[in-house]
Amino acid sequence: MAREKSKTRGQQMTPKTDVCEAVVDDAELGEGPTWDVAAGRLLWVDILGCRIHSFDPRSGADSPMATDQHIGAAKPCLSGGLVTNMRDGIGRYDAANNFRWLHHRPVPGRRGNDAAVAPDGTLWVGTMRYDERPGGGTLSRIMPDGTAILLLDDVTVSNGIGWSPEGRRMYFVDTPTRRIDIFDYTDDGASGRRPWVEIERGAGFPDGLTVDADGAVWVALWDGGSLRRYTPDGRLDRVVPLPVRRPTACAFGGDGLSDLYVTTARVGLTHPDPLAGSLLVLPDIGQGLPQPAFGG
């Protein structure tokens, strides 16, 4: 993986709303924001641009690194480096950026999409077909040694994954269903899938999500131009409009975990919004939870 020249923030872009700031403008399909607690940085990816980004809010610098194939997510590891959900499986970059496969399983026409680290340090990864064929994707649990345990094999667009503060609930999005589903979570994994929240037609499609310190779920609405916050009992508590049509995912970050970072996309838009493809930040909007590192 070759390191590209660091990109600084440059001239500030003026968003269409007074609660939102664009800090980087550099992605075709931004995804997977994750606050790396140990490094004090925000990790995010450009799936189709084949890049892992590292944003430092203190300096405003964003450092992209090229990958050899499409990448759905990158997460920090306890032992240093990153674990990645790639087109052909789960990769591992050490602290010196040397790459190896942790779980290599290429499937023609399929790629990795969103991923998240559970409270127990296991990695939950989703896949999808490039043509978004119904049922062509999966949801799996990756153990620290690379062992893969399949949970779902009939997913269409595997997206947001998150856990309640006490770790007993796991949330999951298969985007075309327009739902956020919920599982019971134990050391043995996830079970008891059931619908939790349904997004009404015309409001967009649920994409990536994060859980805050109150146990509320924030979800990005693809083609909905907004974020929504749902309380633990599934009640819609807040709608935050955004200056882009296609937000993809969100994560709390910053020194106090009070800033909400939002990745966005310009892919598929004939006339994209001026800030489409930007990394956005909503300062002091809530209180996030520290995200665990992968146990490998």
UniProtKB/TrEMBL annotation:
Q: Which Gene3D superfamilies match?
A: TolB, C-terminal domain (2.120.10.30)
Instruction: State the UniProt keywords alphabetically.
Output: Hydrolase
- Write the Enzyme Commission number(s) for this entry: 3.1.1.99
The chain's coiled-coil residues are: none
Q: Where is the SMP-30/Gluconolactonase/LRE-like region domain?
A: 29-266
A Pfam family reported for this protein in Swiss-Prot or TrEMBL: SGL
**Known InterPro entries for this protein?**
6-blade_b-propeller_TolB-like, SGL, SMP-30
Q: Which GO terms describe its molecular function?
A: hydrolase activity
Keyword Lyase annotated: no
Record family assignment: Belongs to the SMP-30/CGR1 family.
Put simply, this protein is called SMP-30/gluconolactonase/LRE family protein
Q: Which organism is it from?
A: Nocardia beijingensis
